Amino acid sequence: MKPTNDFVVIKAEEDSVNVIGLTRGTDTRFHHSEKLDRGEVMIAQFTEHTSAIKVRGKAQILTSFGEVQSDSKHSSS
Ligand code: TRP
């Protein structure tokens, strides 16, 4: 599968947000982890290697489906 044109935009709203890529195929495992500090942005695609993306920490996530907010584990707001 080729990358689609659909990009996912992740903007970290705290330090040490992790963007984790999970493998495509029978075996779903982490293959990449990217650490973003507050204000940093990652723009990513789903590819032949990446079927899912997990975000840990407080971030703003934009996709073609809309916008969603992830929160940190111990968020008070
Ligand atoms: N080499 C990976 C791939 O082509 C890079 C990648 C694409 C990635 N999308 C990602 C890594 C999302 C983390 C999260 O699949």
Automatic annotation (TrEMBL):
Name the UniProt record assigns to this protein: Transcription attenuation protein MtrB
Taxonomy, superkingdom: Bacteria
Subunit structure: Oligomer of 11 identical subunits arranged in doughnut-like structure.
Record keywords, A-Z: RNA-binding, Transcription, Transcription regulation
Domain Tryptophan RNA-binding attenuator protein: 5-71
Gene Ontology biological-process entries: DNA-templated transcription termination; regulation of DNA-templated transcription
Molecular function per GO: RNA binding
InterPro entries to which the protein is assigned, alphabetical: MtrB, Trp_RNA-bd_attenuator-like_dom, Trp_RNA-bd_attenuator_dom
Family affiliation: Belongs to the MtrB family.
Gene3D superfamilies membership: TRAP-like (2.60.40.50)
Coiled coil: none
